[in-house]
Write a structure and sequence with these properties.
The protein is mainly β and 337 residues long. The chain has one helix at residues 54-57; strands at 5-13, 32-39, 63-69, 72-79, 86-93, 95-103, 128-129, 143-151, 159-167, 169-179, 190-198, 200-204, 213-218, 236-238, 247-252, 266-273, 276-283, 291-299, 318-323, 328-329, 333-336. It has 2 domains: 32-44 and 52-169, Sandwich (Immunoglobulin-like); 170-326, Immunoglobulin-like (Sandwich), CATH 2.60.40.3690.
């Protein structure tokens, strides 16, 4: 089940007139309205070791509510409190409003001024950098959501609005690793040394109105196309056959995916066979925001890995099972190499 955070908005209209126009292009009347917004969530300290709990990944450290009329910002208000997450916004006009919420935005996320267009969310200057979603959870995972409401007068009753917000990242988690050696493979000669994400998109829009992600690619291991500053430590974890539990990575959405797509994001195992370094890459299917993919891997042909972490050399030797979970769960996927 997809989990959401709920914003409850109670709108009290201070004057009697209101707009009956339900067209989103309405800019509202001069009738004044106030908006009370409550975010249901918990502040939490970042993880130190092991996998984060769902509560940690759900943590809200701060959020901003943007109220647009006719796609022009009428007012924005921000809360950074960790208790009683509530905002009161006054001096609004009645009429059709688009309400946007951005939670856990990084420090460099641009400030919106009254009069700014809704389309500012889609500008490259508003994109989120993967470096700000590196897994430490110090600032929390960036989330967003939006909804349209017509603010009515007090005489029409209380206006309530629920907005569901979701993470802009996806989570890739390493599940089980099974060694089932094929004929001719000697497991005593094999050593598992690491796991990495390869070719993750490095930039993502805030998800308003939709997710757009861009290159350059980032990887945890240097390969043929991803090198130098685009190799990120947070996309690599040292592992062993008896120590690979709770390894996970946050990545941005990638509409490319599958065994034949050169721009797909990959999960790659690193190891040595008889002292020779080799890789076992698996191209992930298309990745969407707010999903978790758990990969269960079976290694059989231990001496036939790829020399490049970006390029699967023998797809028939790798079996991977992927299971997305809530977050939004994706079915387990198995891979065999």
């Amino acid at each position: 089940m997809k989990r959401f955070f709920i914003l409850t908005s109670i709108v009290a209209i201070l004057c009697s007139a209101c707009s009956n126009n339900d067209d989103e292009s309405s800019s509202g009347t001069k009738t004044k309205a106030s908006l009370k917004v409550t975010l249901v969530g918990k502040g939490v300290t970042p993880r130190s070791v092991g996998a984060p709990t769902q509560a940690e990944e759900n943590a809200i450290h701060g959020f901003t509510v943007y109220v647009f009329a006719n796609n022009i910002l009428e007012k924005a208000a921000t809360s950074t409190t960790l208790e009683g997450l509530e905002l009161f916004i006054d001096n609004l006009t009645t009429g059709v409003k688009r309400v946007v919420v951005v939670a856990n935005a990084p420090a460099l996320f641009p400030t919106f001024e009254e009069g700014d267009p809704y389309s500012k969310f889609a500008l490259a200057a508003s994109y989120i950098h993967l470096d700000d979603q590196d897994g430490s959870l110090t600032n929390g995972l960036v989330m967003s959501g939006e909804e349209v409401i017509t603010l009515q007068s007090e005489s029409a009753g209380t206006n309530d609005l629920d907005i569901s917000i979701s993470r802009i990242v996806a989570k890739i988690k390493l599940g089980t690793i099974t060694i089932d050696p094929a004929v001719g493979s000697n497991p005593a000669l094999f050593e598992l040394t690491g796991v990495a994400i390869i070719k993750s998109k490095s930039l993502s829009s805030i998800g308003i109105p939709s997710i757009v992600t861009t290159q350059p690619f980032y990887s945890g291991i240097e390969g043929l196309t991803v090198q130098g500053a685009n190799v990120k430590e947070y996309l690599y974890e040292a592992i062993e056959l008896d120590d690979h539990d709770e390894r996970y990575f946050y990545v941005f959405a990638n509409t490319d995916g599958g065994s034949d797509d050169a721009d797909a994001t990959l999960l790659t195992l690193e190891g040595t066979y008889n002292g020779e370094v080799m890789y076992f890459p698996f191209r992930l299917p298309a990745i969407v925001r707010n999903t978790q993919h758990t990969l269960d891997i079976t290694l059989r042909r231990l001496g036939t890995g790829s020399p490049d972490p970006e390029v699967p050399s023998d797809p028939a030797t790798l079996t991977v099972t992927i299971t997305p979970e809530d977050w939004v769960v994706v079915p387990n996927q198995s891979a065999e190499w």
